[in-house]
DNA sequence: GAAGCTTTGTGTCCGGCGGACACATTGCGT
DNA sequence: ACGCAATGTGTCCGCCGGACACAAAGCTTC
């Protein structure tokens, strides 16, 4: 629970795409380091990303990396900023808030799906970059014209991005293995059954859900959230 | 992304409250270890929990701990299992699914609030214990009698527990500092303003939200989710 | 072209981490 | 009193992030 202010050098994070003229072809650059790290994280998970490992992939000693990033925390922050990509502009989409936010959610989910380590890496105390904030800005813009208050819009966006994070986290790791018995270890299913009727609601629900789409509740949750927002918006309009 | 099956010794986790007769007064016990670890995590965050640190708090060498827990992963698993506590029984609550699930959510949130490290500790690949499963069972029982399918019930519970996790995670760390400008570092607010109208929706929303309750969208999200579920249930009943 | 200076990468070292393993100690049953 | 199993200790290993002094290149300026 350290103060976020302790983290070093937010400068690089926020100046990422405003680098000055000098463009000399350097053997080692921030981009190469970040991309190497993202490659490792995509393939082997964020916990496989160590300075040594990244350096080895670039045929360089780990201390060389510190000439370009000031700490591992900064490296991870820039990894996240790079992985989430440029936020989309959904303001041109017609039909009101709903198609706009649906499109936004679809794009965000697609982006996060490419980098299964994002839910883990973005949990906890950390610095946040402009692109990440840009995604929030983009989502908030979808609610322009609705009767929702500022606080409500923020909460709505938080709710939606949280849902994306949760479903992606569950996909990346076996966070809720009971949601999909096919993925659950036989051991666990066995344990459940061994406890008799203590878990009868789970067992019957899982039994009933054998043909459900393996999306960790993404579509279901999104629909429920949007329905809930729709109800509030209609109520406030009346 | 290691296979969960790699983790050692699920035996202890699942036998936690079925320990046999032999109850000799031992200096060092699993309970003392786990409680010491939880104390540290509650006070200083989960990242402060190392085997050395726990051992020091018990005036013992770290290797002594390994006589009682087989690995740090197991210790953390039992910490979680202990921290979440016994799941509640909400089946006796009258008035249908809604008061039952509301009560469940309230209890779960209260429990998680006592241990701000739970969101972090329960993210990623890990083993899950019977109590944690029991909370899911408890939530699922609230939907007994509704027209929701098994898959829908599971998704609904996942959606709700995800919301609790998200709001708690945001409370424990500065995950979404823009949600509450009072907590945001002045530096960040300054950066936002410095970008002109690039973040105008955020700035105006935050400006408008200065008197919002600092619950990270808990009440708002819960209401929206329940409204969304209500709509689906009514629709399926018709 | 030589001298200096800055930039970039290297080598070494540190404390802390999780954990394997051999050893010391203790206490209980015989 | 003996032996044995349970419990705690000490030492060692490889890995982690990172501080710091040093080497090797350029580039600038005479």
UniProtKB/TrEMBL annotation, chains A, B:
It comes from the Bacteria. Residues 50-69 bind DNA. The keyword Transcription regulation applies. Gene3D superfamilies: Homeodomain-like (1.10.10.60), Tetracycline Repressor, domain 2 (1.10.357.10). Keywords: DNA-binding, Transcription, Transcription regulation. The keyword Transcription regulation applies. Residues 27-87 form the HTH tetR-type domain. InterPro entries: Homeodomain-like_sf, HTH-type_TetR-like_transc_reg, HTH_TetR, Repressor_TetR_C, Tet_transcr_reg_TetR-rel_C_sf. Pfam families: TetR_C_1, TetR_N. PANTHER family: HTH-TYPE TRANSCRIPTIONAL REGULATOR RUTR, TRANSCRIPTIONAL REGULATORY PROTEIN. This is TetR/AcrR family transcriptional regulator. It comes from Actinomadura fulvescens.
């Amino acid at each position: 629970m350290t103060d976020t202010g302790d983290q070093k050098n937010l400068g690089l994070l926020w100046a990422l795409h405003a680098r000055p003229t000098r463009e000399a072809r350097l053997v080692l650059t921030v981009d190469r380091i970040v991309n190497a790290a993202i490659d490792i994280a995509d393939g082997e998970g964020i916990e496989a990303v160590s300075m040594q490992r990244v350096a080895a992939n670039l045929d360089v000693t780990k201390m060389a990396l510190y000439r370009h990033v000031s700490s591992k925390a900064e490296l991870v922050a820039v990894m996240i900023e790079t992985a989430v990509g440029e936020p989309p502009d959904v303001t041109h989409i017609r039909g009101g808030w709903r198609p706009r936010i649906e499109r936004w959610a679809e794009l965000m989910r697609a982006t996060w799906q490419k980098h299964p380590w994002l839910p883990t890496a973005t949990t906890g105390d950390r610095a946040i970059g402009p692109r990440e904030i840009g995604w929030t800005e983009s989502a908030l813009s979808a609610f322009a014209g609705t009767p929702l208050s500022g606080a409500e819009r923020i909460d709505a966006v938080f709710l939606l991005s949280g849902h994306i994070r949760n479903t992606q986290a569950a996909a990346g790791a076996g966070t809720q293995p009971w949601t999909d018995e096919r993925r659950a270890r036989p051991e666990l299913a066995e344990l459940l059954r061994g406890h008799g009727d203590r878990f009868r609601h789970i067992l019957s629900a899982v039994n009933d859900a054998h043909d459900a789409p393996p999306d960790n509740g993404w579509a279901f949750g999104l629909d429920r959230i949007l329905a809930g927002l729709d109800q509030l918006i209609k109520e406030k309009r009346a």
